[in-house]
Amino acid sequence: MPNLRDLITAVALTLPSVCPIAWAQGPNVIEDLPDLGSAFDAAGTEGTFVIVNVSTNEARVYNPARAAKSFPPASTFKIFNSLIALDTGVVTDTDTQVLKWDGQTRPIAAWNKDHTLRSAFAASAFPAYQGVARQVGLERMQGYLTAIPYGAGDISSETLDVFWVMRGYTITAWQQVDFLKRLYLNDLPFPQRVLDAVKDIAVVERGDSYVLSGKTGWTVDTDPGMGWFVGWLARGDDAYVFATNLDIFSQTQADARLGITRQALESLGLLS
Predict the structure, then answer these.
(1) Catalytic residue positions?
(2) Residue range 166-201, pLDDT digits in tens
(3) Lowest pLDDT segment from 22-36, 153-167, 232-246
(4) pLDDT for 22
(5) What pLDDT sits at residue 9?
(6) Cα dist. 83→148, 183, 225 in Å?
(7) Cα(254)–Cα(167) distance, rounded to whole angstroms?
(8) Is the pLDDT at 23 greater than 50, yes or no?
(9) What is the pLDDT at residue 6?
């Protein structure tokens, strides 16, 4: 099988011929997490939390109806976008190549400067990743989204650099964890150096017995707005992939993305 970059280049003008990579076997849901409702209630919102043990494929879920509902991936797409950037050569290095600021001042100060891929990921710098998407181009972006299961929807030349925060392209919590499980297991068709580089920039926290990695997301193109925190937790020989999403009405709920996730992980004894 050719590498993915060659495949995408070869079929860029004939996308229907791309054979999507098969979905992973569905997880075995062994129990729900009813007590997590109090955390969402305390934040004044509704949401869902899904976690899957990578080794056993056993899953736990709070609010399974919402876990099956699709929402824009928002900045969680930066995980996939980073893989694409490195695979295409649009970005060659996570720490030295400069992604130039376009000079437009935006409300979030951390966006208003040059970035590396690492710092852009950490700051969730939307303009930097818009530039990456433009350089990748519509045909190659469509090719990756066709070849690798990641939500569903349409993109166009007009939405190429914004589609991940818009209602026209959506993903479920279950689809998020399926994609992340493949990433963690090196089961996505990218070179190992690309997979390793993205895993490295995604590290959020290193504890004595675990490493927590992931990415937040927030979109206002839904009513109400909604947010994500998705990622994986490595603990010794065990690993877990997870996805939290919730409705956002104010900064309180935005802050709760990480807080609720941490509460869920702590309740399962995974952050001790």
Answers:
(1) 75
(2) 999 999 999 999 999 999 999 999 999 999 999 999
(3) 22-36
(4) 39
(5) 46
(6) 12, 10, 27
(7) 19
(8) no
(9) 55
- Helix/strand/coil (H/E/C) assignment for every residue in the chain: CCCHHHHHHHHCCCHHHCCCCCCCCCCEEEEECHHHHHHHHHCCCCEEEEEEECCCCEEEEECHHHHCCCECCHHHHHHHHHHHHHHHCCCCCCCCCCECCCCCCCCCHHHCCCECHHHHHHHCCHHHHHHHHHHHCHHHHHHHHHHCCCCEECCCCCCCCCHHHCCCEEECHHHHHHHHHHHHCCCCCCCHHHHHHHHHHCEEEECCCCEEEEEEEEECCCCCEEEEEEEEEEECCEEEEEEEEEEECCHHHHHHHHHHHHHHHHHCCCCC
Token pair belonging to 266 = 């702590």
| Domain positions in the chain | 4-8+27-267
Q: Tokens 């580089």 map to which residue?
A: 197
Neighbours of 83 (CB within 10 A): 21
Nearest to 84 by CA among 13, 159, 23, 146: 146
- At 96, which amino acid appears? T
pLDDT at 13 over 50: no
Arithmetic mean of pLDDT over the chain: 91
pTM: 0.91
CATH code assigned to 4-8+27-267: 3.40.710.10
